[in-house]
Amino acid sequence: QVTELVLDNCRSSNGEIEGLNDSFKELQFLSMANVELTSLAKLPTLSKLRKLELSDNVISGGLEVLAERCPNLTYLNLSGNKIKDLGTVEALQNLKNLKSLDLFNCEITNLEDYRDSIFELLQQITYLDGFDQEDNEAPDSEDDDDEGDEDDDDDENEAGPPGEYEEEDDEDDGASDLGEGEEEEEVGLSYLMKEEIQDEEDDDDYVEGGEEEEEAEGVRGEKRKREPEDEGEEEED
Description:
Blueprint (H helix, E strand, L loop, with lengths): L3 E3 L22 E3 L19 E3 L10 H6 L5 E3 L8 H4 L10 E3 L11 H8 L5 E2 L12 H19 L2 H75 L1
Parallel strand pairs: 1-2, 2-3, 3-4, 4-5, 5-6
GO biological process, one term: regulation of apoptotic process
Pfam families: LRR_9
Main location: cytoplasm
């Protein structure tokens, strides 16, 4: 039931890895990077295998085995091996579903017109060493995630770098610190002046109010005095 198996940095013995056999019928991804593999002669039959990583080994030929035992391969990584000529790669023509081939750090990459020759020889592949014939990079889900993160970072930068706002805030704080003493003095003086003015107004109001009350009392007193006199005059009449 295993669909993915990574055996990187294990050590092969006589061209095979102990335990890897035909029983892995559901295997779709197999990685055997840096296992000192010299040949694929003992590779088991893995009919459902789609991706095979064989980088950093010492494979120099015998690639025809792949079409026999892993006919459904879509991705093959042979980077860092001892592949030197086009004749060795020609055996991959029988991998009809192969779409991506990596030959990084193989001597074959030093050949003149290397890329054009490989694309002409293996017409079924779309990507060689991660790029198509127009030098467009092969899509990768991890790269897409990274690009999404970068876009988020760009959006944050467009919104305004926090550093600038912090500097402006610091400047504003400095300006307010410089003027605090002066402002406090001005506020204190004006506040005191207002208090004095209000006190004076209050005193005036109080005095005026008192005078009015005194006048009112005087009027009342006069009325009271007049009333008995008026009554006396009436009686005399």
